[in-house]
TrEMBL record, chain A:
Name of this protein: Monovalent cation/H+ antiporter subunit A
Native species: Ancylobacter defluvii
Residues in NADH:quinone oxidoreductase/Mrp antiporter transmembrane domain copies: 130-408
GO molecular-function term, one example from the UniProt record: antiporter activity
MrpA C-terminal/MbhD domain location: 622-685
Location (main, coarse): membrane
UniProt-annotated location(s): Cell membrane; Membrane
Residue ranges crossing the lipid bilayer per the database entry: 31-52, 82-101, 113-131, 137-154, 166-189, 209-234, 246-268, 274-295, 371-389, 417-440, 461-482, 502-525, 580-599, 611-629, 636-656, 662-683, 704-725, 763-781, 825-843, 849-870, 882-904, 924-952
Record-annotated Na+/H+ antiporter MnhB subunit-related protein domain positions: 822-945
One of the GO biological process terms: monoatomic ion transport
Residue span, NADH-Ubiquinone oxidoreductase (complex I) chain 5 N-terminal domain: 70-114
Automatic annotation (TrEMBL), chain B:
Listed Gene3D superfamilies: 1.10.287.3510
Lineage of source species: Bacteria, Pseudomonadati, Pseudomonadota, Alphaproteobacteria, Hyphomicrobiales
Organism of provenance: Ancylobacter defluvii
This protein's record includes keyword RNA-binding: no
GO cellular component, one term: plasma membrane
Pfam families: Oxidored_q2
TM stretches of this protein: 6-21, 28-47, 75-98
Signal peptide: none
Subcellular location, record wording: Cell membrane
Protein name in UniProt: Na+/H+ antiporter subunit C
Family designation: Belongs to the CPA3 antiporters (TC 2.A.63) subunit C family.
Keywords associated with the record: Cell membrane, Membrane, Transmembrane, Transmembrane helix
């Protein structure tokens, strides 16, 4: 396997493991933990194997084309920086898996935990290995999602739910900002590939979009890495199981933001904008986090705030913009990951073995757990920056960088003082952690009797602390080359001079370290009485809670704003809503006229005026207005008038060179009328006039308003259509259709060729909609409850039955049977005629007006005419119509014809044409489009019949139900 | 002709909108149908008016768009007519069901 494939394997392994773990039995704790650990170890090995390649200046790459036209590919890229992060993700991941095996209770659904953990590992790996920025954002959002699941793992507790939601909201929103930022970068550079973006630093920095890009990318990074003012989600995320905290808040989740800033450091950093955005945020986070950490009573809370503070430190270093500070930032990222993971694990052990992590209860644990205590002390010393430990080295580099001059501004000049202050704070909270937990009198009211944990639970801590020591004592033999590699990936092949030695002689940095240590001890001693009093939260800034502001904003947006909008625009009544829709549409249509002035008549010569056409439209307009007037009380009249209007529009189509439309409109008109007639049976007549004398003013006002709206709409549409019709038609896609219809589509009826060939996919979608409507109508009518007034026999039927009963020689039903006997016979005989006509329409459709739609409706008319002539029961006894099968078969034919072109290596729905000489019929085109049209034909027949028959059936159902009611 | 058709479209649309804003469901269904006639004719008229020039190639081969009716709006309207029928059917059944369930044919679902 090539290195690229190995890389892909390393990325896919955690996801595969996650899917697998999800299917393990609920209590398979050992299996799940073993699998997670094994995957992490294998990943580690894979990454280590690729060290040789990543060491060279050329990164390992793998590009799989995905959306090449949009510049979006699956692109993996492993350089020194990605290598270092990948090693941390897998390495600490393996230790966390081992630790979690012992930490998680057997009662919890542990496989789910490992499933989330592995998925998170994969997502995080995706972020660091992405060679494409869009892909990076994708994995970035995945980390947000999986961290949400991990933090909310104990979802029965409110704290876990709230913490998870807060983390997701904050980091997810930041991710969206990042996405926009990345899209802007892609716009500037012309590519999302990391290689090209990294080579286009000058272009990006000189672009007018540079400031928005920096702001958006930083919003993403700051939310993820818990920088002020977005830091508040991190302490709440402590509701997660401790292994999650150890993983997310040391090496992964929060380091994603740091990674992003480091990754884009070569292209974004080094400007004043960058400096003044990043440095203050980092500095405030550093100080605030360290200050707040001192006053926490919860062990994990203390570590959480210290994490925030260290993230601030790294951000600050990245903000300085000098190559040396970037090296220090990477170095501190690694060191922090190692000592913070071990500290979280130690805190978890303490919690696990004593039952509490409240600093007010914990005391004097050293005598019970000396080994854990020693390990925690070493790790905490590293956090405080004590010599011979890794934390000391990177902190020294930070101090040295703080002293360096970068921009010469007041902020820059004051950095050494702030840095020293932060150093003092970190010594203080480290001391608090150690002395508070391990020294002092033995604790009295612990929930459990404390003792050392199982050895394998402590093993990850031991290993991490060993690494702390190794890096701290012999840095150049351990972390040196890795760091140089990572740094080269960020700042280029020529590294600035730096020394990883412990002793540099007496420098400012050393002096600052000594001041920090002494100051920290003094501060701790000074605060001891205050801290022991057990007050929660830091003084002075206790009231400054980001969380409260966050919740306030959430309430305003998701509740108050929604309520206000609902009150303003919402209604349970349809009528006012429809009015709003119409008015908004009207306003949208009028606004261009308002802004650009009124349209005038165009220059196109008018078609010759024909009085007959004017007469036709006089009738049409009369029908429409009369229908509008009569629809309330005279429904049948309105239906007839509607039919008149439909006929006028059908004749208009025929007049104006659209035979296909005229035909289809006429046929649809017939079906619609039948349908509405069937419906009228179930609409009880409206008799009562609500306002016998004259309507109240409010009703009158509403009517006049509606009338004004309707008239405005009418005039507006008339004006716009006249303005368009009198202007010459520009060049459009029609030329292509007309020129290619015969050559490419093999038909002379261009409209039909468009429907079944050029835009066949749209037509396929349309017939699917038709099927869905048919099925919906069918489903709705199966549980149909008619209005109670309409359940009884209709008036005409009652009169006929009375007449039949009164006459001695007649029985009920005779009148109906005799009614229109001759026309009914003719209608029955017409069935083959209409059916043949349908076939004729279908066959000629490709060359002359007709086609699948028209033919389908014609055939369904043939059927429905039988229903009307002979009655539902007679038809169903003699003729088995299976609309559902017609529909299914039609969809199958249409899709299969489309898919058939795949067989020959063409895209979906490619048409093949051939002219065949058929006996008798003559020369006849056989296009695959004809098969497609056949499918459409069948669907139209099926769907139309399904609707009509379902409605016609209601008359039968009623008889049956009333029969059962009357019968027994 | 253009003027006649434009006025006709306007009348159809105006009547349709008036009915759309009425309280009874049956009025709304008639209004929607009228409105779809108007919209179909409006879209159709975007291809400009031509008399005696259907979009059918008289001689097999390459057609000349200048001498034929514009096929694109016609293809759009053809599908719109069929979908319009489906919409009417669906709305009719909803109307009937609502009439049975709410006991009223007011669009708001209750008399007021």
């Amino acid at each position: 396997m090539s290195n690229g494939q190995l890389l892909l394997l390393a990325l896919l392994l955690p996801f595969a493991g996650s899917a697998l773990a999800a299917f393990l039995p609920t209590h398979a704790r050992n299996a799940a933990a073993f699998m997670a650990g094994a995957i992490a170890v294998v990943g580690c090995v894979l990454i280590v194997l690729m060290y040789g390649s990543a060491e060279r200046s050329e990164p390992v790459r793998l590009v799989l084309e995905w959306l090449p036209m949009l510049g979006i590919n699956v692109s993996l890229r492993l350089d020194g920086l990605a290598w270092l992060f990948a090693l941390l993700i897998f390495g600490i991941g393996a230790l966390v898996a081992l630790y979690a095996r012992y930490y998680m209770s057997a009662e919890d659904p542990v496989p789910r935990f490992f499933s989330f953990l592995l998925a998170f590992m994969g997502a995080m790996l995706g972020v660091v290995l992405s060679g494409n920025l869009v892909q990076l954002v994708f994995f970035w959002e995945l980390t947000s999602l999986f961290s949400f699941l991990l933090i909310g793992y104990w979802h029965h507790t409110a704290a876990a739910r709230d913490g998870a939601r807060m983390a997701l909201t904050v980091t997810g929103a930041g991710g969206l900002c990042l996405l926009v930022g990345v899209l802007l970068i892609g716009r500037i550079v012309g590519s999302y590939e990391l290689d090209e973006v990294l080579n286009a630093g000058g272009l990006i920095r000189s672009s007018p979009l540079y400031v928005p890009v920096v702001v958006l990318v930083l919003l993403g990074a700051f939310t993820k890495s818990a920088q002020f003012p977005f830091h508040f989600w991190l302490p709440h995320a402590m509701a997660a199981p401790t292994p999650v905290s150890a993983y997310l808040h040391s090496a992964t989740m929060v380091k994603a933001g740091i990674f992003l800033m480091t990754r884009l450091w070569p292209v974004l950093a080094g400007t004043d904008t960058w400096f003044y955005l990043v440095v203050p945020a980092g500095l405030v986070t550093l100080l605030l986090g360290a200050y707040a950490a001192i006053f926490q009573q919860d062990l994990k809370g203390l570590l959480a705030y210290s994490t925030i503070s260290h993230l601030g430190l790294i951000t600050l270093l990245l903000g300085l913009g000098s190559p040396l500070s970037a090296v220090a930032a990477i170095f501190h990222t690694v060191n922090h990951a190692i000592f913070k993971a071990s500290l979280f694990m130690a805190a978890g052990i303490i919690d696990h073995e004593t039952g509490t992590r409240d600093l007010r209860k914990l005391s004097g644990l050293f005598r019970y757990m000396p080994i854990t205590g020693t390990l925690a002390m070493v790790a905490a010393a590293s956090m405080a920056g004590i010599p011979l430990l890794n934390g000391f080295l990177s902190k020294e580099m930070f101090f040295a960088e703080a002293v360096e001059n970068h921009t010469g501004s007041l902020l820059d000049d004051s950095l050494p003082y702030w840095a020293t202050l932060a150093g003092i704070f970190s010594v203080t909270y480290s001391l608090r952690f150690i002395i508070g937990v391990f020294f002092g009198p033995p604790a009295t009211d612990l929930p459990r009797k404390p003792h050392e944990p199982p050895h394998w639970m402590r093993f990850p801590v031991e290993l991490l602390v060993l690494i702390c020591l190794l890096i701290g004592v012999v840095p150049s033999f351990t972390v040196g080359p890795l760091l140089a590699n990572a740094a080269r990936a960020v700042i280029g092949p020529d590294l600035p001079y730096y020394s990883l030695a412990i002793w540099h002689g007496v420098t400012w940095a050393l002096v600052m370290s000594i001041i920090a240590m002494i100051g920290g001890v003094l501060l701790f001693l000074g605060l001891r009485a205050y801290l022991d009093s057990g007050v929660e939260g830091p003084p002075l800034v206790r009231e400054l809670k980001g969380q409260r502001i966050f919740e306030r904003i959430l309430v305003v947006i998701s509740w108050q704003l929604a309520r206000t909008l609902e009150r303003a625009f919402g209604s349970k009544r349809l009528q006012p809503q429809l009015r709003i829709v119409v008015v908004v549409a009207l306003a949208a249509a009028i606004s261009p006229l308002w802004l650009r002035g009124m349209v005038s008549e165009g220059t196109l010569p008018l078609t010759a005026f024909d009085p007959a056409f004017a007469l036709l439209w006089a009738i049409g307009a009369g029908c429409a207005i009369a229908a509008a007037w009569q629809a309330k009380f005279h429904r049948f009249a309105a239906l007839v008038l509607l039919g008149g209007a439909g006929l006028v529009s059908s004749i208009t189509f025929a007049w104006l060179s659209a035979p296909d439309l005229a035909l289809t409109q006429l046929l649809v008109e017939i079906v619609t009328t039948v349908l509405l007639l069937l419906g009228l049976r179930w609409l009880p007549k409206r008799i009562e006039e609500p306002y016998p004398t004259s309507p109240p003013p409010s009703v009158l006002l509403r009517r006049y308003t509606d009338l004004a709206i309707a008239v405005t709409v009418g005039i507006g549409i008339a004006v716009i259509s006249y303005a368009v019709m009198t202007r010459p038609l520009g060049e459009s896609v029609s030329r292509y259709f007309v020129e290619r219809a015969y050559i490419g589509g093999g038909g002379t009826n261009v409209v039909n060729v468009i429907l079944v060939d050029f835009r066949g996919f749209d037509t396929l979608g349309e017939v699917v909609v038709l099927c869905l409507v048919g099925l919906t109508v069918y489903a709705l009518l199966r549980r149909f409850r008619p209005a109670p007034e309409s359940v009884g026999a209709p008036e005409q039927q009652r009169l006929q039955d009375e007449f039949d009963e009164a006459a001695p020689d007649r029985s009920p039903g005779d009148t109906v049977a005799d009614y229109l006997r001759i026309p009914r016979l003719v209608m029955q005989w017409l069935f083959p005629v209409i059916a043949t006509f349908a076939v004729y329409l279908f066959m000629r459709g490709h060359d002359l007006p007709g086609g699948g739609f028209a033919a389908g409706i014609t055939l369904s008319i043939a059927f429905i005419v039988q229903y009307m002539a002979a009655g539902t029961r007679w038809v169903e006894d003699h003729l088995r119509v299976l609309p559902l099968r017609w529909m299914g078969l039609g969809l199958l034919i249409a899709s299969a014809t489309g898919a058939g072109s795949w067989w020959f290596g063409y895209p979906f729905l490619t048409t093949h044409v051939r002219y065949l000489d058929w006996p008798i019929v003559g020369k006849f085109p056989v296009a695959s489009a004809l098969m497609f049209d056949l499918g459409i034909f069948a669907v139209v027949v099926g769907a139309t019949l399904l609707m009509l028959v379902a409605l016609a059936h209601q008359s039968l159902r009623r008889t049956r139900s009333s029969r059962t009611a009357e019968g027994e | 002709m253009e003027m006649v058709l434009a006025i006709g479209i306007g009348v159809f649309a105006g009547s349709g909108v008036w009915l759309l804003l009425r309280p009874r469901t049956y009025q709304v269904i008639i209004g929607l149908s009228l409105l779809s006639y108007a919209v179909n004719l409006f879209i159709f008229s975007m291809g400009r008016l031509k008399i005696g020039a259907p979009p059918i190639l008289s001689v097999p081969g390459v057609g000349d768009p200048a001498t034929m009716a514009d096929p694109t709006p016609q293809a759009l309207v053809l599908t719109a007519i069929v979908i319009g029928f489906a919409m009417t059917a669906l709305f009719l059944v909803l109307l009937l069901a609502a009439r049975g369930l709410t006991g009223t044919d007011h669009v708001n679902g209750r008399e007021d």
